[in-house]
């Protein structure tokens, strides 16, 4: 199964893509129901938003745990148990008697939903390597990137025929479907002889080993910091487009959706051209594209440029995320086959942690300026580029010098 056009590879990408969309659906599908939940429990908007924070926390921490478990026990068992708990947690959300019960259930729901994100990527690394991993990962992202676009619309559709309770019942149905797919369609991809020992200390050492790997850390930070910039974009553009530029909700949805399409285009470009252009070349291209687009966004924000002048560079910025994410993942995972779950977990949790830090900063200067967005995405782009050049490129040069010195020593002897 090494050909991107192989029907089995496409079917596997569709299935694993569904698992990777579980996170976006868990986060976004109930967002349109916030006013209903406030009214139902007679609570405040901040407490309802706390249920979202709990879910994000579960998704972040859960990836670290699930990645380690999948390296020890294989891919199917943790995924099966997680999907079963996901169904229970979703139903617990639906029947919650209080807002605090909902918050706790959302924490659990996010924690087990993380298994779909991290294990789907670990399975991809189990089965593919090199350019084939890049091609397959681009297919995986093609499905996974649809989640943030489809989830809010799906939630609104459910709310049109039901209450907020129906949203969580729908999520439980999705979880049950993924449980069935894991049980009867997904084969184990990590044989026993390749699994990590069931030793908590060893799992911690695995993470330590990954973080000491300069190349892995450089790729991880380049990808994670860039995606953190997207969190700033997601949290800032609803306000910027509608409040500062006065566009209607419909126009905002069109602008936001079109940028989501460019994200997919960027990832597919890397996948389709992987056999002609190296992943490193694409990664550098994406980093420079992000930096140039960020400078343009900042300048337009400072000089209060027209809407189109802001939208165009943001389109290129979001496209650059698709390019850098698709290129950085296989480069980082290439040498991590023995602990792909742990490596995928680190690459998954970093964007959530950094995104949680930068998202609130978008509104730090008040309601009448987009300058903080420009500053944040320029900063994330610059730090991502530095992470690549200082950790990956500099490390490669140091390794090359060391190898040359060893060869010179052998010749001298």
TrEMBL record:
Membrane spanning residue stretches: 12-34, 46-66, 78-97, 103-124, 136-155, 161-180, 219-241, 247-270, 282-304, 310-332, 344-365, 371-391
Main location: membrane
Keywords, comma-separated and alphabetical: Cell membrane, Membrane, Transmembrane, Transmembrane helix, Transport
This protein's record includes keyword Cytoplasm: no
InterPro entries in the cross-refs: Efflux_drug-R_Bcr/CmlA, MFS, MFS_dom, MFS_trans_sf, Tet-R_TetA/multi-R_MdtG-like
Compartments, as annotated in UniProt: Cell membrane
Ranges for domain Major facilitator superfamily (MFS) profile: 9-396
Gene3D superfamilies xref list: Multidrug resistance protein D
Name of the protein described by the UniProt record: Bcr/CflA family efflux transporter
Species per Swiss-Prot/TrEMBL record: Paenibacillus aestuarii
